[in-house]
Write a structure and sequence with these properties.
This is Claudin. With about 210 residues, the protein is of the alpha+beta class. It has five helices and five strands; from the N terminus they run H-E-E-E-E-H-H-E-H-H. Helices cover about 60% and strands about 10% of the residues. A five-stranded antiparallel sheet has the order 4-3-2-1-5.
Length: about 210
């Protein structure tokens, strides 16, 4: 795979990862009511996310309510919120920086070494964005697992399990880190050596003609 094709593939993968992370951040299905156990309750399904909690009835009606207070939320929810916001910001700047540095764009064509370095910087931003998404989703999943298996008087079918947003978040983190890694492969080692050689030989050639 050529350098330009590798950069394009990495950019598209990272862009898909950022969009998936955005979807995961706004979805309310970070955890959902469990249907395990003998007495299965299917009349109402409960879902909770970073920003709201929802109740879906068997008739198809869904009612959602935003979390009223920030300070009253549990620590893992606040931490996951912050990590997802940071991830989205890093990914947004990664999108802009990578477009400037990719070989398939015409911005900064006169300096290919600097252009490649900008592409690498965009790849680093995408990798950091994926790590933040991975940390947020894994932290939330760890808390859900802990609350599910700890000894409690709550019936097992009234506890919470992993929601679909967690799996979307894991996929988003994987795509962002994969795309960012491909962009980081654009480090201009050969181009830099070639440019240095050109600069060293050009003055001596000019003197010979003089």
């Amino acid at each position: 795979m050529g350098g330009g094709a590798r950069e394009l593939a990495g950019y598209l993968a990272a862009l898909a990862g950022w969009m998936a992370a955005l979807a995961a951040a706004v979805l309310p299905q970070w955890r959902q009511s469990s249907y395990a156990g003998d007495a299965i309750i299917t009349a109402v399904g409960l879902h909770e996310g970073l920003w709201m909690s929802c109740a879906a009835q068997s008739t198809g009606q869904v009612q959602c309510r935003l979390h009223d207070s920030l300070l009253s939320l549990e620590v893992h929810i606040q931490t996951s919120r912050a990590l997802m916001v940071i991830s989205l910001l890093l990914g947004f700047f990664g999108i802009i920086v990578s477009v400037v540095g990719m070989k398939c764009t015409k911005v900064g064509e006169e300096d290919p070494v600097t252009k490649s370095r900008i592409a690498v910087a965009g790849g680093v931003l995408f990798v950091l964005s994926g790590l933040c998404t991975l940390a947020a989703v894994s932290l939330y999943a760890t808390q859900v697992t802990y609350e599910f298996f700890r000894e409690s008087t709550i019936p097992i079918n009234a506890r919470y399990e992993f929601g679909s947003a967690l799996f979307v978040g894991w996929g988003a983190a994987s795509l962002s880190m994969l795309g960012g890694s491909l962009l980081c492969c654009s480090w201009p080692a050969k181009e830099r050596r070639g440019q240095q050689y050109h600069r060293q030989t050009q003055p001596s050639t000019a003197r010979e003609y003089v």
